[in-house]
Amino acid sequence: MRSSFSIIFLLLAGALSAQHSINLSLEAPVGQGTILIAVYGSEADFDTNENAVKSAKVVVTKVGTYQTTLEDIPSGKYTIALFQDVNDNGKLDTNLLGIPKEPYAFSRSPKVKWRAPKYEEVVFDLQASQDMKLVLKKWKKR
Looking at the domain 19-135, which fold is it? Predict the structure, then answer.
């Protein structure tokens, strides 16, 4: 009986500490710069753009599709925010109104135009490794 509890405990502990991967396929609309990727594990971190649980960079040399994998991410709720730093200055350039001048994308491709997306519009539940396609878009009037 005691060994049955030990086996169940070990199985549960393994399931709770499972690590996953996110295989990203990124569509870059500009043929230069670097795609900067941040994964946030809470609404507060996403709202302040701080304390990313995982980050990555992808160098862009031409317009097209790029692949990268984010590994060792525990089960949970996450958001992904990324932009293509075309001039490689380390920040998302915006105009006087705060509108991005460089291509950007978020997990779950929110349908927002005149504001930044809210956490609930871009959050996803990671319970197993998954593939995700994100298309970086330039802001334009509709």
Answer: Immunoglobulin-like (2.60.40)
